[in-house]
Amino acid sequence: MPPHLVALASGTGWHVQDLIRASQHVGCRFDPLPFPALTARLGDGPARIVARGVNLLDVDGVLVRMMPPGSLEQVVYRMDALHRLEARGIPVLNPPRAVEAAVDKYLSLAQLDAAGLPVPHTWVGESARDAMDAFHALGGDVVLKPLFGAEGRGLARLSDPDLALRAFRAMERIDAVLYVQRHIPNDGHDLRVFVLNGRALGVIRRTAPAGQWRTNVSLGGRAVAIPLDAETERLALRAARAVGARMAGVDLLPDSQSGRLVVLEVNAVPGWRAFSAATGIDVAASILDDLSRWHP
């Protein structure tokens, strides 16, 4: 009997299609299921967590492919369901604690910092006035980031005090958390390492488009495969362990002033389209193969 794996996702985009393709090579039964379809039953016999007729308590592994937007209650319920699956011995990739940590920039950075990894100088708070003090303390050149977010969306580089104050006040008015990092001087590129089950599959260098500072391929950045050196691999593996991620996209930035690599963030629901295209590595097949063999 081939292993039965499912992916909890949002829609049926490129990554889901790539997983469907890879499942045929891995030799597993694979079902992509929408997160919002999750239902739970308690108190009338054996507990069930079901989506589209599939009881996730009976499958051999669950891949968290994408957490779609939702209310606080919806997201908490989805995470509760993942915790219940893990408690019942179902392999969940990534483990719920890793997903919770990585989606929260402050929590994940705190865990990286506690593990002794080099991270950007960062200030987090709720007051625009305090954020201005941090702006000056961080050198007057900062990046304002949403606490929750990915693919470079919602980032703003601020070096003008008046614009910084306006941005901070706008965030304060919508009751947002202000997450402010010192801009790290760099040569316009960063590194993305794909980690799976304690090993680095490879690394790509992402270069920002001309006149831009964000390197995300989804925003026009260019990705090329480069050799994986020992220091890059060591940092990436330590970063993934720090947030408890079995699978991770680890972003590292070479600081052009200090010459050292800084860990920007760990993505516990990483995409791999640009990575696979640049490296030729079949990431989807590697993920499904790992999940089918994993026994917590």
Detailed description of the structure:
The chain is α+β, with helices and mostly antiparallel strands. The protein has three domains: 91 residues, Rossmann fold, CATH 3.40.50; 99 residues, D-amino Acid Aminotransferase, Chain A, domain 1 (2-Layer Sandwich); 61 residues, Dna Ligase, domain 1 (2-Layer Sandwich). Helices cover 34% and strands 27% of the residues. A hairpin with a 2-residue loop joins β4 and β5. α1 packs across α9 and α5 packs antiparallel against α6. The mean pLDDT is 92.
Describe the structure using short key phrases:
D-amino Acid Aminotransferase, Chain A, domain 1, globular, five-stranded antiparallel sheet, four-stranded parallel sheet, 16 strands, 34% helix, alpha+beta, 3 domains, 296 residues, Rossmann fold, Dna Ligase, domain 1
